[in-house]
């Protein structure tokens, strides 16, 4: 049995309510319950009850407009998504609606059951994704509470053991700083996650909508363009989720170093093949191995994550047509992996903060990403008892070198 989706239409024109009711009744395979609020005030009262899954809001509402309603409703704690309805296409209104919190923008005169069903479905999915982010935030808040309890226990222990006042003050300062750092981490996490999720989700939403408009064979190129945009956006979302999940697992101590013996050369070649679908147009990855043999004993999954991350960064921060060089070296003392690009480089003033969580160099703020990648790479390398070094010059490129010193078991 399909779940009933409760929809509230906010429109001061009863004819529009009847038209919308007819359109929504033609949507197949789903059950909808459409309710109507005919005024700005009545709409706010119904929205405050939080009894609907999605709101359809007309742009014109007498002395008010739909954007005012969306702004006030969100400020009052509304959680379900808002879809703005207008009588004509207006890109400025569309963009303003998205900035204020609307999930989509539809034109009433062109509305079809397919467009409406697609918009409602994507808006609800978008809202569910944001809810997951909020739940992650709640988990971080619980960790803050746990750290606060740790602080209280530390103070009690200090009092019970009668330590000197100076020692007690030092311990408290450290705990408070840790608390402050965790709060900052939580705030940055929520801000970055919300922004980074919204951009690719909006891309998927708009491209999926446009694909439905291209129905002729000669429009295949346009369809493929938007399919590629959707694939790229989904890839970005996957990368963001992987970064957050990796950071969470590292923080919880769930990442372990499990070395196995394998041949480094085909291992790297396989990673390069995997990267071909993600590098920019005209970019080429050149691989060179030095030393014989090429057998190493390392954690394959951690090493793969390290190399994929470094190659992805090399592609992201390099222009189309640039070359990326990866070099491996194995000798009696060590195993080494080096990735060199011809990208934008890292400004000298930013290099001291390069491995800080969520840090973005000032020349990289216009590139997609969470600022977690290099922090995760550094922590993976540390777990594997390796070293990570780099050299970089702005506008000329960056080289990252990962080294693992051999033990008698290698």
UniProtKB/TrEMBL annotation:
Entries under InterPro entries matching the protein: CheY-like_superfamily, HATPase_C_sf, HATPase_dom, His_kinase_dom, HisK_dim/P_dom, HisK_dim/P_sf, Sensor_HK_Regulatory, Sig_transdc_His_kin-like_C
Domain Response regulatory residues, every copy: 6-123
Reactions mediated catalytically: ATP + protein L-histidine = ADP + protein N-phospho-L-histidine
Gene3D superfamilies (UniProt xref): 1.10.287.130, 3.40.50.2300, Histidine kinase-like ATPase, C-terminal domain
Claim: Coiled coil is one of the keywords in the record: yes
Modified residue annotations for 4-aspartylphosphate: 58
Residues in coiled coil: 151-188
Pfam families: HATPase_c, HisKA, Response_reg
Domain Histidine kinase: 192-408
GO molecular function, one term: phosphorelay sensor kinase activity
Keywords: Coiled coil, Kinase, Phosphoprotein, Transferase, Two-component regulatory system
EC number: 2.7.13.3
Name of the molecule in the record: histidine kinase
Protein's organism: Rufibacter immobilis
